[in-house]
Write a structure and sequence with these properties.
This protein has 398 residues and is α/β, with parallel strands linked by helices. Helix content is 40%, strand content 20%. It has two domains: 2-248, 3-Layer(aba) Sandwich (Rossmann fold); 256-397, Rossmann fold.
């Protein structure tokens, strides 16, 4: 059974977290994440949520509190954005090394400066190699469903890593749409009602030292095990999504999903809420006889190299639309990840790097249509070299 509600993305995230029965929630307000904590606080005040809500003085404290709570065996949840994530930098790196399955929503917002509060995943993508599983979603239904899946992934004994559920600020966080909310009993069947740690548990009867000064040889072993856990997470993400689909009738493709790709010669690759506009542009191009498809990346860490190689290796060309900048390369981050994937696996494919939607600017269907046209034209010129980065803004590429 489900109930249909009209929810913002932040409401969907809060309801998803509530359905997972967290023991401890700690967060500090920052735009555009703040409504999540407000919704959770209201649920607690109304008796709908039994979690302990901790009022803290900063985002650094919020994640530090949850580390202590997770070490005692509590299921934990928090949320942040942008500068708040930056303030978490120290405990953010510590969490995966301690193998704590904390779930944290990141409502993506551009980093300062210039001053902006608008959406963009530069905040979370910049920290993609800190050891967290990072999942990116397209709409409000996917937010709710992925928060529930995130707890299952994080707490799986093969993983035991923290998970970020990332979505675009304002485009999803504050915009409303239809969302199917599952019954609590069905979520309880999908997700164990509590987190039961086996690898570490703080107990006053058995004192232990947590995170002492670590010699290099031991740190190397920690990092190796983190890498192995991250690689296992790829399979767990698939399993969690497939199991969710069987239980609730919805699934999201695991780490990556494809649209109209079976007979495609070209493709766009997207991340997050821009995918809707790209899907419309693909449909319109198909109506004109252009054989183009779409690949939506959901998991940035672990990086779904095998799946992406399978989907893209036989194309004549593809374009990656990034809402972020890799300053070392002058392209977007996802574009560079994909180029590395195809090169490492021995099948270079002509590609075009697009950067747009910065500072919350709308990535419209017209811009996506231009991206499709640019990919087709570049591919027909032949060769495997990448084109210069195309900057999409104001309805035109630059």
């Amino acid at each position: 059974m489900t109930t249909v509600q009209v929810l913002s993305g932040n409401q969907a995230a809060a309801i998803g977290a509530k359905l997972c029965r967290p023991d401890v929630i700690a967060a500090y307000p920052i735009t555009p994440q703040t409504p999540i904590v407000e919704h959770l606080a209201q649920m607690a005040a109304d008796g709908e949520l039994t979690a302990s809500l901790c009022e803290v003085e900063s985002e650094h404290s919020a994640l530090s509190v949850l580390q202590g709570a997770a070490l005692t065996g509590c299921r934990t949840f928090t949320a942040t954005s942008s500068q708040g994530l930056s303030l978490m930098y120290e405990p953010y790196f510590r969490t995966p090394t301690l193998r704590l399955p904390i779930v944290m929503v990141i409502v993506n917002r551009e980093m300062i400066s210039p001053q902006t509060v608008w959406g963009g995943p530069q905040d979370s993508l910049t920290l993609r190699d800190a050891g967290w599983v990072q999942l990116y979603v397209e709409d409000n239904q996917e937010i709710l469903d992925t928060v529930i899946q995130a707890f299952r992934i994080a707490e799986d004994r093969r993983v035991l890593l923290p998970v970020n559920v990332c979505y675009d600020g304002f485009y999803l966080s504050h915009m409303t749409e239809r969302v199917d909310v599952p019954d609590q009993s069905d979520v309880d069947d999908y997700l164990p009602s509590s987190y039961e740690p086996e690898h570490i548990l703080l107990d006053p009867e058995r004192p232990m030292s947590v995170d002492p000064l670590t010699p290099g040889a031991l740190l190397t072993e920690y990092r190796r095990k983190q890498v192995l856990a991250m690689s296992r997470a790829a399979q767990v993400i698939k399993e969690a999504d497939a199991s969710f689909g069987r239980k609730f009738g919805r699934h999201w493709g695991g780490p990556v999903s494809a649209y109209r790709l079976a007979d495609a010669e070209f493709a766009l690759v997207t991340l997050g809420s821009m995918t809707g506009a790209a899907r419309v542009a693909v449909d319109e191009a198909r109506d004109r006889g252009v054989p183009v498809g779409l690949v939506k990346v959901r998991s940035v860490r672990p990086w779904p190299a095998t799946e992406l190689f399978r989907l893209l290796k036989d194309l004549r060309g593809f374009g990656v639309v990034d809402r972020n900048v890799s300053f070392g390369w002058g392209t977007g981050i996802i574009h560079q990840e994909l180029r590395a994937t195809l090169s490492d696996l021995g099948r270079p494919v002509p590609s075009v790097a697009f950067v747009g939607g910065l500072g919350g600017e709308d990535l419209t269907v017209d811009l996506m249509t231009k991206a499709v046209r640019t990919v087709v034209e570049a591919s027909r010129r032949g060769g495997t070299a990448t084109c210069p980065t195309v900057w999409l803004s104001g309805g035109r590429g630059r």
